[in-house]
Amino acid sequence: MQTRLIDQISDAAEILRRGGLVAFATETVFGLGADARSGEAIERLFAAKGRPSDNPLIVHLSDMAQYRLAARELPPMAEKILRAFSPGPVTVVLPKSSEICPSVTAGLDSVGIRIPAAAAARELLRVAGIPIAAPSANLSGRPSCTTWQSVLEDLDGRIDAILTLPAPHVGLESTVVDCTGPIPLLLRPGAISLDDLQRIVPTARQSSDPAASRASPGLRHPHYQPSVPVVLIHALDDWDSRQAEGQAVAYCGMDLPSGSQNFSFIQQFDSVETYAQGFYEFLRAADRAGVDFILVQSARGPGLAAALFDRQSRAAGGAANCELP
Ligand code: TXA
Ligand code: MG
Questions:
Q1: Helices vs. strands in the chain: H and E counts, helices first
Q2: Quick check: 218 pLDDT over 80?
Q3: Ligand 1 atom nearest to 111, measured from its CA
């Protein structure tokens, strides 16, 4: 299959309506869209990404009024959260409608819905007029993509088209909130923090809270990993460059390394916002540069920093560590 690069929203909508796969920019990361009502399209989508079939997809809609295309009901807490943060980087998990094919939700009776804020993405969803399942547009397990060039790197020949219109982006995937139980449960951190949610619905809790545990199936699988190992450090003082003699090391973080440290590929970020925006692209660029491993300074703090730290820990294969590969 040849992957076309396109810049017309109407062309992208037409391919989606015919059961094709189209990648498009959102304000979080690029998504890979497919008709959420078509078992055939969804099967192709899982195959293109190499995604495990037990990891459910988020259904994207152009506005709140469309929720019935995907969900049976909109509990009041979910409505409050959507009204406060949508269009935007939040996904609410709701009771699933029978219109959505079972493979989208990995057989679960719940469905995640999201209304992206990026103008081109919303226009695409409006013109297509159908519920669009869209996981991040990367090979399963790899870092998400924030440029169309990275999408092409992973998915060339596996999908029908990439809509190359860019969008300003947060750089981390949406906050996922389960609204199927008595209280909202935060399943995946993102730009919308637990504090933000609690301002709207004070009972909202972290899903790891033992009193409230309900799991997000996708979190079991490896995520955000380049082909070389990622090592998390808290501060450059923790790092003794003699440990990496003869190896090509990439480094990213908010502190700039001093001259004595010999890194072959470096990126310094001046704020948590730019760190989140550029993190995945840095991992991919370091990977392309052929380094032996990637040293990542952990983000510290609440909100977006906590969401970035979650992705950094997963990129490093689990919990934060300072061990050499
Ligand atoms: O920002 C985003 O959310 C991006 C853009 C493209 O919208 N999409 C994205 O999709 O990150 P994906 O497939 O990479 O991640 C979906 C996450 C997984 O952690 C999955 O387990 C969770 O959402 N999820 C989806 N449906 C769910 C459900 N019914 N119950 C629990 N978790 C669900
Ligand atoms: Mg993903």
A1: 8, 15
A2: no
A3: 29
The verdict on the CB of residue 119 being under 6 Å from ligand 1 is no
Q: Is the pLDDT of residue 260 over 70?
A: no
Interhelix angle 272-288/304-315, rounded to 10 degrees, is 20
Average pLDDT over every residue of 140-150: 97
Pocket test for ligand 1, best of 32, 90, 216, 310 (most atoms within 8 A of CB): 216
Q: Is the pLDDT of residue 298 over 90?
A: yes
**Ligand 1 centroid, distance to 263 Cα (angstroms):** 35
> For ligand 1, atom 10, which residue shows the shortest CA distance?
135
Residue span(s) of the chain under CATH 3.40.50.11030 come to 230-315
CA atoms within 13 A on the CB side of 154: 32
At 222, the pLDDT band (50, 70, 90 cuts) reads confident
Whole-angstrom CA distances from 200 to 85, 154, 179 are 10, 38, 13
pLDDT at 325 over 70: no
pTM beyond cutoff 0.70: yes
Residues of each domain in the chain carrying CATH 3.90.870.10 = 4-215
Average pLDDT of the segment spanning 207-219: 62
Given the candidates 3.40.1160.10, 3.40.50.2300, 3.40.50.11030, 3.40.50.10610, the CATH classification of the domain at 230-315 is 3.40.50.11030
pLDDT tens-digit map of 59-76: 999 999 999 999 999 999
% of residues, the chain, pLDDT over 70: 93
Query: Is residue 41 a contact partner of residue 136, using CB atoms and an 8 Å limit?
Result: no
Q: Is the CB of 140 under 6 A from ligand 1?
A: no
What is 4-215's CATH superfamily?
DHBP synthase (3.90.870.10)
Residue 187 corresponds to which tokens in the numbers above? 């399943």
